[in-house]
Amino acid sequence: MAERTVAEEYLAGYAQILLDACSTGRRLTRAELDVRRAEGERAAEANLGLRVLVRAHLSEARRVQEALTTPRVAGLLAVVEQAVDAFAEGFERAPQLAVRQEEAARREFIDDLLGGGSDLGRLAERAERFGLRLSRAHAVAVAIGPEPYGDGYPVARGIESAVHARFGNRHTLLATKDGRLICVAPGDQPDVLAFFAKQAYAATDGGRVAVGRTHPGPGGVVHSYEEALNALDLADRMGLEGPVLHAADLLVYPVLARDRQAMADLVETTLGPLRGARGGAQPLIDTLSAYFDSGCVAVEAARRLSLSVRALTYRLERIRSLTQTDPGDPRHRYTLQTAVIGARLLGWPDASS
């Protein structure tokens, strides 16, 4: 009896449509089926059990059967089947709609959080729903791989499961944006970002991860996110090695690139004469990069370039002759190395006009 009392709210009009349909021998109309689906959705949202509700439908059908004359009873079962099927369809659809709505709300929040254009106070309120406390300081890690990734992809799901299994919630957020994998974590929990980086590197088959610095407040998340993106961009332009990049280790590059015109002048003045070399400037720029990256050790630089030491020495002499600066001379080395970094930042000589 208690079950029927609970279910009665969702049986409104049900007996009448059974009587109307059986009286004429017709099937239920589209409008009547839509009503039953809507009632099924409402019942699911109220967390009622489907078995209880189906039983209530069948009990009500028996009462309708008692009120029908014998000729009209024949079509009752078919009409009940239609009604119960529509109700169950609505009941099953409700959780799916709720999941899609939750996913849409989460995606909108992530876009607003990382886009930086939303009201920060309102953003902080919404963040609580997704486990973030934006009043704290946060850091962001961004991972890329050989292909773009989206929410629900096996790679994204696997990394999220691994992080949550290891650390629980810990007020972290894992998501995807523009084909990249994202992890937002409190700034005082670098172990979470380190574990995310390890998992992302393995799951993306040798992808690359960049970690932004820790910044406070709602705006700190987008600041850290942009630092991570810039670190990935720098890694491509500068040919930086290593699977994990930390924005804090790359601060010198934005400083050097801040005055673009001054950097362009330095590059052109210092390295411009290398255009006159056979094969152009690029092989000699690569030689200087390897030489400086190896600590000015000729043997190591030659190994990196797959050259003999003699061939490397010849190239260094050619650079000295063309530029009137000696890579081995400490007085010239800083200018040359800064110019080489600037050339890689600016894409010189390919990007020069």
Describe the protein's architecture and organization.
This protein has 16 helices and five strands. The protein is an alpha+beta fold and 353 residues long. It has three domains: 98 residues; 125 residues, Alpha-Beta Plaits; 91 residues, PucR C-terminal helix-turn-helix domain (Arc Repressor Mutant, subunit A), CATH 1.10.10.2840. It has a five-stranded mixed beta sheet with strand order 2-3-1-4-5, with helices on both faces. Helix 8 runs antiparallel to helix 9 and helix 14 crosses helix 15.
Keywords summarizing the entry:
353 residues, alpha+beta, Alpha-Beta Plaits, Arc Repressor Mutant, subunit A, 3 domains
Give helix % range. Answer: 55-70%
From N to C, what is the helix and strand string? HHHHHHHEHEEHEHEHHHHHH
Oligomer: single chain
Radius of gyration: 34 Å
What is the C-level CATH assignment of the largest domain?
Alpha Beta
Count of alpha/pi helices: 16
What is the beta-strand fraction? 5-15%
Structural domains: how many: 3
Mean pLDDT: 85
Indicate the CATH topology of the largest domain: Alpha-Beta Plaits
Count of strand segments: 5
